[in-house]
Amino acid sequence: MVPPIFAASPIDAIDHRARASNPPGAGALFCCLLAGAVIACLAGTSSVMAQERRIPAMDVWPRTRTEWDALEAERDREPAHFKEAEPEYAAEFDALQHWLDWLRERYLAPDLVYDEVVADQLVGELYHDAGHPVLNSAGPDFVNDILLELAAWPEEQLPGSVRRKLVDGFLEYIAAGGGRCSPAQQAESARALDRLAPDDAAAQAVVEELLTDALEWAYAVGREYELKPVKRCCREHWGPLFELRLHELETREALAGVERPESYRQAVESLADLLTAPVANPAELEKRLRQATEAALHDFQVAELEEDALSRLLIVYRCLLTRRPEIAPRVTFYIDNQLLRLAVKDQVRSARHWRQWSAAVSALGPERISQRLRRYVSSQLDRRDLPKAKQEAMDRLRGMVGSAETRPTLRPPAARVG
Q1: How far apart (Å, rounded) are the C-alpha atoms in residues 184 and 68?
Q2: Which residues lie below 8 Å from residue 410, measured CB to CB, with a gap of 6+?
Q3: Is residue 216 one of the residues assigned to a domain?
Q4: FRET label pair with 214: which of 5, 53, 252, 347, CA 20 to 30 Å apart?
Q5: Residue 64, CB half-sphere, CA atoms under 13 Å: how many?
Q6: 208 lies in which domain range?
Q7: Same structural domain for residues 210 and 358?
Q8: Residues 282 and 150 placed together within one structural domain of the fold
Q9: DSSP characters for 52-97?
Q10: From CA 398, how far away is CA 408, in angstroms rounded?
Q11: CA-to-CA distance for 262 and 268, rounded, in angstroms?
């Protein structure tokens, strides 16, 4: 992953301190050392006692869209342009490139067997001072990549006690504020910790905190290049439940201050349970899905809650249809029938709901969609009297409904819509 945080520091005071403590040309000496010193010597200099470690000045990006907009307009985030923007730090930049190459050679050597000394040295690299806040912020990205690879190493090369030392050192670094220069970096820090300690309750609590905050941060600043990697990390950790969590984030303001009755809470819980507690028995899954559908379509007497519950239902339908291995035909048939019913009964109205509805129908695919639902979608194509949101939903399905014949499967008789 190419680190996105190569940009001039947003805090001039930090930048001045970095310049004062690391005058131009300081990195040149480091370059020479890299070129001529023995790797073992470098490892020794990078391994600092834990109590002496201090996180150097970092280039931490803003948490609001307005501040992010202003900073991005002022400074170039491309790594290749850093030397042009800060020519007096050219030596430090070059030294960083050498150091990053050396990291992989040192800590991912194929025949390397980790002990506590090597683990401590790797943790120490997180505190490496490259001479400028922007350069300092690049290091954690590359150490995260190393930790991700180490997580898959066998016990013979990474014993349990040594893995524990890595986890403890990484947790200490995160607790001190490290690995959080941007939403994407924070999510990658969580991902590395998640892989290293999947069964450690304390570590998993930190993973939850980091991912939850990174998702809110990325959503707040509205940058797709930040949101995309954050979503990827969140999906890996939370699985299908991530889709519901993202929905909650996107609709938080709309539901702020709305009183939520017990019937609504139970509906939300039953829908989430379908994703977090998978059922192998098709009959049992269909039964639970029917109950959750009825609960979600309950008349809550509050428009905001009814709209939210329908969104959650459509998200769950899509998640179940994208599950692999595929859910049983009888469950697919039930969802297919409900999607048709919701559209025919005019229960899908808003632009959000039509997007979610078309996404669920698309998840059926050309081989599983029923002829009845296919005919319904086909009948809506090219109609100009439809609301714009519904027209767009049908247009998104245009290629699918005519792309293949349905796959022969044993299905229950088509239930009557109405």
Answers
A1: 14
A2: 329
A3: yes
A4: 53
A5: 3
A6: 12-238
A7: no
A8: no
A9: G--PPP--PPPSSHHHHHHHHHHS---GGGHHHH-GGGHHHHHHHH
A10: 22
A11: 10
Is the residue at 1 inside a domain?
Answer: no
Same domain (yes/no): 310, 232:
no
Are 99 and 232 found together in one domain?
A: yes
Verify that 55 and 187 share a domain, yes or no: yes
CA atoms within 13 A on the CB side of 191: 24
Structure tokens at 415: 């239930």
The answer on 289 and 157 residing in a single domain is no
Q: How many domains does the chain have?
A: 2
pLDDT of residue 85: 85
Mark which of 190, 210, 238 sits at the end of a domain.
Answer: 238
- φ/ψ (deg, to 5) at 259: -70, 135
- Asked whether residue 6 is assigned to any structural domain, the reply reads no
**Residue tagged 């499967």 (tokens):** 409
Segment holding 160, helix H or strand E? helix 160-175
Domain assignment present for 410? no
Q: What is the pLDDT of residue 49?
A: 47
Residue 74: other Cβ atoms inside 10 A: 10
Cβ pair 356, 318 in contact under 8 A: yes
Among 214, 238, 262, which residue terminates a domain? Answer: 238
- For residues 386 and 380, the answer to whether their CB atoms sit within 8 Å is yes
Query: What single-letter amino acid sits at 109?
Result: A
Dist CA 156 CA 391 (whole Å): 59
Cα 9 to Cα 260: distance, rounded to the nearest angstrom: 44
Question: Are 217 and 266 found together in one domain?
Answer: no
| Alpha-carbon dihedral sign for residues 118, 120, 121, 125 | positive
Mean pLDDT by 10 residues, the chain (418 residues): 33 33 40 38 43 87 95 76 86 92 94 96 95 91 95 96 97 96 96 96 96 96 95 95 92 90 96 86 94 96 95 97 92 97 94 96 95 94 90 92 50 46
If phi > 0 it is left, if psi is from -120 to 50 it is alpha, else beta; for residue 301 that is left
Verify that 319 and 384 share a domain, yes or no.
yes
Provide the pLDDT for residue 79. Answer: 63
